């Protein structure tokens, strides 16, 4: 593993837990950092900034299930997880509507980023924040979409 130098313990923990898979060496490093103690509010601030709060915490629980955080942060985590899960459910339902509408017009659409990764890699809808739906379409189909009577489907915000 590469060495993480000149970072705070909270920054190191963020780097180590912001991933889907990890090596045994990563797990040992996470345990070492947790045993030394960290500032949970600083860690929370970093994970919020990088939109990885629920993913990082899930990984921490998987590596060291007996880690305790304040009841306040624990409640925030539960609410964040639930909110992200529900938002992602809405986005993924909307993605199905967009793909269906595009298919009716014979326009191929390729979901990318969160729209594709949540089901394929993350599996759990509450650990990957998704702020929008990203899809690739052919440049030549843009005018066709603009002319379509149901084009509101393609630009609507949730």
UniProtKB/TrEMBL annotation:
- Specify the domain of life of the species encoding this protein: Bacteria
> InterPro entries recorded for this chain?
NTP_transf_5
- Name of the protein in question: Nucleotidyltransferase family protein
Task: Record the organism.
Answer: Clostridium simiarum
